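G., the chain you wanted modeled:
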Amino acid sequence: MTCKSWHATWIVLIAVAVLHVPTGGVFAQSYPNGQIKILVGFPPGGTTDIIARDVGQELEKAWHQNVIIENRAGANGALAAAQLAKLPPDGQTLMMIVSGHITNPLVSPSAGYDVLKDFTNISLLASSPLLIFAHPSFAANDIKGAIALAKEKPNTIGYATPGVGSIQQLSMELLSYLSGAKFLHVPYRGGAPALNDTIGGHVPISVLSVFQVLPLIQDGKLKALAVTDTKRSAVLPNVQTVAEAGVANYEASLLFGLIGPPGLPPAILAKINAEVVRIINAPEMQKKLAAQGVVPIASSPDAFVGVIKSEQDKWEKVIKAANIKE
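Predicted structure as tokens:
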């Protein structure tokens, strides 16, 4: 055999060997390779931001890499999601999402992403019942009274939310759909300004996560009307659910989850998921989340995808019925 033949043979053998290297396992062993970034599509200080920071701190301890939270607020989280969808699938940038991430494309074609195709859905993290609450001067003291007022004077009682198409708006539109009461939507750019204007009495009603409102309810600066979940909140046991008030089949929850760019290698996906599930199921994290009125829910990627599909089906009907669009 000539020298050239040997040379050609070795090139072929090397190429074959490279093709058979278990790259996924190697990637997983070396992951994470440097600083990890977790995008949050909302301003600092909200429930999404706080949970992201809690999880980020635990990932930092486990992986001995810096984890930074980058708040990229805008378009109900769609700006951050659009950024994530274009990033390489190395797992170095992830994103904390809430229910609005799922409903954005149903409300606005300009959201610019497909929830299932454009991301790797890693795990559910938690759910939070929403709280429908009011300024102390509001005439009704519970949701039954608020419904009666809204039926008497349709589209005159305003309710503040973090934005058009948010789960907070959808929860109120579901209430209208099932009860026949008509409230007036007053959208804001985020939960903080919506909350501030309700505290100031500029808008009589709002709906936000229990965690955001709990201290103000306890201090008497706001009054709780109803919890949107099927069960009463452990931190507000005396506040009835909307269903208990007579609106059958009513349920709305704010979901939190972790996603990555599209095409995350299975080995890296499995490594992130396993670590996140461990973190969420740890007793200390369970206590921390429960104290915030949040229910911890860790899941497999497949289970997370199933929840996303179920939420899409549920809220698409409400969006169409209320003609919600941006």
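The mean pLDDT is 90.

Shout if anything looks off.
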